[in-house]
Structures are given as C-alpha cells and as structure tokens.
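Work Package 4 report. The design task specified in the project plan requires that, given a folded chain encoded as structure tokens, an amino acid be chosen for each position. We show below one input record used in the internal validation round.
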C-alpha cells in the first residue's frame, strides 16, 4: 500500500497540518489510513487522543515513531491500511532519509518564505541524491501552505518562480490559511464534526481539504491501492 512521507527540514512549514488534512479526508472518503507520528511535538497523536472514534476504524495513529521502530511499525501498518502517512520532524536526520527512502510519494509542504523554500530544497536534494547514486526515483510534489486566499505576497511569488525554474512539481491545490485547520488541533474533531456556526468559512475549509486529497490521489497509480475505493467513486 502507498506510503506518503511529508518532509521539510524547517519546522513550522505546515507539514503536520497537511498530514492531518489528507489523513482525515482520505478516511472520510472510505480509505483505511495509518499515520506514523515521528514528530517530537506529537500534534497528530494529541489530536487523535481527542478525536478517536470519529472516523470509525478507518484512521489509526501510531505514536512515538523513531529511527529504531519505524521499520517494524511501517510494515505492520502497511499490512492493514490503504495508505500510510509519515509525519517527520522538521530537521535533517537519519530518520528523514529512511522515511523518504520508504516512500512511494513525498509531499513537501512549503510556506511562502525563503526559509521554508530552503527546507524544501534540502528534501529535494536528498531525492535527487537517491536518484543519482542509487537509481531510486520517488515521485514528489510541493504543496504551498498557509496561503492567504486574498493576497499573493512577493515572497510567495518568488517561491513559485523558484520551483518553476527548478522544474519541481507544484500541486495546484494550496492549503489556505483557515481557522478550521487550527481548530482541529485545538479542539479535536474533523472538519465535518465542527459547528459551522462557530467556525468561520468551514465549508471552504472542507472544499480545500477535499481538493487536496483528490489531487494527491491522482499523483499515485490506482494499482498501488487496489481493492480500496476508486477515484471514480470518490471524485
């Protein structure tokens, strides 16, 4: 089953938010999803402890994943899930190299800043190294995070130009800055268990998460998750 690794060597790039949005949306669409939480902040694990049961048995979070445990934990979750998502620390580490090497697809969250872009570039350099030295080709994309839906900054434009110049695939769906995405971590629950009267633009947050999930699914050959819901059934 496909393994999707989320990586950026800079912390605060919106990586864990991207993991949570994709995990919950894939589960809502009917896929069985496991998240390996290797981030020392354990935000995904904390969210799961406050939200367990909302998605039935379609979403599982494995806490405290480390360099010494990831091999076993990954194999166990691949045996039971349609997708395994790995949330990594925002730093360079041996765990980063291992998790990227296991991936069928690498998603690189980047905010509109030079520091985030450099953190993403570090991951891309690792992917190029694996291709050049070991002939390991791993499909990968950048997803822009915390994007202001009303304003395009010069920094964001510079990041897009840099990605285009380096021919790095950029997802068409950015993750927009939404209160609902922050509230998921603060209060638990999913975008579909929240009260629309208390959370602004909840419908737009739901649309954003769904579009992200569908675009990511299109990056992964359907044969890799044979037996799970098809794109035709969820599009």
């Amino acid at each position: 089953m496909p393994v999707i690794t989320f990586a950026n060597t800079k912390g605060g790039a919106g990586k864990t938010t991207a993991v949570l949005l994709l995990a919950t949306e894939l589960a809502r669409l009917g896929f069985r999803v496991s998240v390996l939480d290797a981030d020392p902040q354990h935000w995904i694990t904390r969210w799961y402890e406050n939200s367990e049961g909302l998605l039935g048995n379609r979403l599982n979070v494995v806490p405290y994943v480390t360099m010494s445990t990831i091999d076993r934990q990954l194999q166990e979750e691949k045996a039971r899930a349609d997708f395994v998502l790995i949330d990594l620390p925002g730093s360079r580490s041996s765990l980063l190299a291992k998790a990227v090497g296991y991936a069928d697809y690498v998603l690189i969250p980047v905010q509109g800043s030079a520091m985030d872009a450099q953190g993403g570039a570090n991951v891309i350099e690792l992917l190029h190294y694996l291709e050049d030295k070991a002939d390991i080709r791993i499909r990968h994309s950048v997803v822009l995070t915390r994007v202001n839906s009303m304003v395009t900054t010069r920094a964001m434009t510079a990041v897009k130009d840099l990605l285009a110049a380096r021919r790095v695939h950029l997802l068409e769906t950015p993750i927009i800055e939404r209160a609902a995405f922050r509230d998921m971590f603060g209060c638990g629950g999913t975008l579909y268990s929240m009260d629309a009267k208390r959370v602004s633009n909840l419908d737009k947050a739901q649309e954003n998460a769904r579009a992200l999930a569908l675009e990511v699914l299109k990056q992964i050959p359907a044969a890799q998750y044979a037996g799970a819901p098809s794109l035709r059934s969820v599009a």
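The longest helix spans residues 114-134. Validation will be extended to a larger panel in the next phase.
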